[in-house]
Write a structure and sequence with these properties.
It is built from 21 helices and 21 strands. The protein is an alpha/beta fold and 568 residues long. Strand 18 and strand 19 form a beta hairpin. It is 34% helix and 17% strand. The longest helix is centred in the first third of the chain and has 18 residues.
């Protein structure tokens, strides 16, 4: 007979108070546990979390024997500059809880920036355990106590809305991220000179960028890879600048670890004229945004890169990467190709072959609370597949039939979540570009006027504490690669239903991205615009609110998205 242990409600944590005890830490001397308010038995054998700190740096750890572990740190040269140890005790701690709390503290303290953390990111996985929800709630109390003791500065809400938190290398990996990591590390530990390209494929929110950042940090921290030229190549200019800004506060990383495609021929990043494979490992984020020589902004710079590399004028940025990287790793979503300059699936398949035909798959949804089901649902609608209408419990999905209520809903959401933005298809001319006059506008709907994002350089981040920027409307070029608390999506007249076929089709006259439509056939433009709306409709973490300008299309989409005349 199988005996099953039953846990009762009484065994769940009740939220016991935290004791945070602080005492001096001196390199080469044993910690004086007598100054602690904790019982000797607890110091010797109770699960706890601790923070080593001085004025600038901190290190977070966990142990089942504080006295032994801190004693070990006292003999470590790496820890010699710390001056105090802060020991966190709770009578309801267990080994699973302290492992979770260690990871949480590392992630939040890194983003808080009160200290620069010296932790590595080894072994961080997002795992479940008994009563994790209750321990998550308890952590909020712990964090407020740390703020009271001036060991932290910002609130959890402020941190979670920050870019530093989102792009932190201190994230617990999902199961499929961990599998991907192990496969990549196995390839790295092989013969780099004979390595084949790797493709990591995933939908929005599956953690492609996070995995790339995690991997960069792990390789930088490991002495085995010291001396290798390892970079993240980020094709999206605004996202590249965001990553450069956020990762330079991470111990062991620097802004120059994040490069663009044209940096492949710059000596300061390791390029040697006439040499091949100057980069050992290139982690290519947003690989679907790599360019070919079609409808680009700067042809002369593109041609100069080809000349330096000794490649033909028709070479793509993937060709540049393969020419210069021993092991290129492409993080890729085939559904996010949004214009003629982006490399299409056919080009990527013909260039990468087996790597893209047998990619490492990321499936776990880490961002959108509607889950993978919501992303699949949006993709199915845009693919004209007429899916069965679905609801997504816990995900705020709303279609508005009145633009004023759409704006009112945005204002209410924005009051609670700074990371809420309005985004739209490129269905209005950008009249205000380069003109700061606040009286000018680009978009007018039902008497309400709005303007496009006045900056393409980290528009999402610059909206923090700046209501003017936060109330602008972001286009595809300012939002791809970013997350929002709630996405307020305006579907313009650039897409409509064909009255004969009942299928989506582009309206070329109402699509104002000149480079986005020049050279594109009607069928290609329709696919590009559908891909744009796929990106826009999958940005929201907690919800997506939609307004559709075309009445016929709005009526059609009301079959799939819950329509409300007034949202409260």
């Amino acid at each position: 007979m199988k005996i099953v242990e039953t846990r009762t409600a009484a065994q769940k944590p009740k939220g016991a108070p935290f004791i945070i005890d602080s005492c001096p830490f001196r390199f080469g001397k044993q910690i004086d546990t007598a100054v602690l308010d904790l019982e000797e038995s607890k110091v010797q054998s109770w699960p706890m979390v601790y923070i080593l700190a001085n004025k600038k740096f901190a290190y977070v750890g966990q142990t089942t024997s504080v006295a032994t572990r801190i004693g070990q740190h006292c003999t470590s040269v790496e820890k010699k500059d710390f001056t105090r140890v802060n020991i966190i005790y709770n009578e309801e701690f267990n080994t699973s809880a302290i492992t979770d709390y260690e990871h949480r503290l590392i992630g939040y303290m890194n983003a808080d920036q009160r200290y620069t953390l010296t932790n590595k990111n080894e072994g961080m996985s997002d795992t479940n355990y008994f009563s994790k929800t209750q321990y998550t709630d308890m952590f909020k109390d712990l964090w407020e106590e740390l703020r009271r003791l001036e060991l932290a500065e910002h609130t959890i809400h402020e941190i979670e809305e920050s870019e530093v938190f989102k792009y932190s290398p201190y994230k617990g990996l999902s199961v499929d991220q961990r599998v991907a990591l192990e496969r990549i590390l196995a390839a790295i530990d092989g013969d780099l000179d004979r390595a084949e390209p790797i493709v990591v494929e995933g939908m929005p929110g599956t953690g492609k960028t996070i995995l790339a950042i995690y991997l960069l940090k792990a390789l930088r921290d490991n002495p085995k890879y010291e001396g290798l030229n390892i970079r993240i190549l980020e094709p999206v200019t605004s996202l590249r600048k965001t990553l450069q800004k956020t990762l330079r506060v991470v111990n062991g990383l620097k802004s120059s670890d994040i490069i663009g495609a044209s940096d492949l021929v710059k000596p300061e990043y390791g390029y040697v004229s006439g040499e091949k494979k100057c980069f050992d490992i290139l982690l290519v984020d947003e690989a679907h945004r790599l360019k070919q020589r079609v409808n680009i902004v700067n042809y002369s710079s593109y041609d100069e890169t080809n000349r330096k590399l000794g490649l033909p004028a028709s070479a793509t940025q993937i060709d540049w990467i393969i020419d210069q990287a021993k092991l290129p790793i492409f993080f890729y979503d085939p559904m996010q190709t949004v214009g003629p300059s982006c490399l299409g699936e056919d080009t990527i398949h013909s260039t990468l072959g087996p790597a893209v035909e047998n990619p490492i798959k990321l499936d776990s949804q880490m961002r959108v609370k509607g889950g993978k089901g919501y992303l699949d649902y949006v993709a199915s609608i845009l693919a004209d597949e007429d899916p069965k209408p679905k609801e997504f419990n816990g995900y705020d999905l709303v279609l508005h039939d009145d633009f004023k209520t759409f704006i009112d809903s945005f204002e209410r959401y924005y009051e609670k979540h700074d990371l809420t933005r309005m985004i739209a298809g490129y269905s209005w001319e950008w009249k205000t570009k380069g003109n700061p006059d606040p009286a000018l506008f680009d978009i007018a709907i039902d008497g309400i006027t709005l303007r496009w994002n006045r900056t393409s350089d980290n528009w999402v981040g610059k909206g923090f504490n700046n209501p003017t920027i936060a109330h602008e409307v972001g286009c595809i070029h300012s939002i791809q690669g970013y997350d929002l608390s709630c996405a307020f999506v305006i579907i313009g007249e650039d897409i409509r239903l064909n009255p004969q076929t009942g299928l989506f089709e582009a309206d070329k006259d109402n699509y104002y991205d000149a480079n986005g439509k020049r050279t594109a056939s009607d069928e290609e433009l329709t696919q590009y615009i559908k891909s744009i709306y796929y990106v826009l409709l999958t940005r929201g973490i907690y919800g997506t609110h939609i307004y559709v300008c075309n009445p016929e299309l709005r009526k059609y989409l009301s079959e799939y998205f819950p329509l409300v005349k007034r949202y409260r």
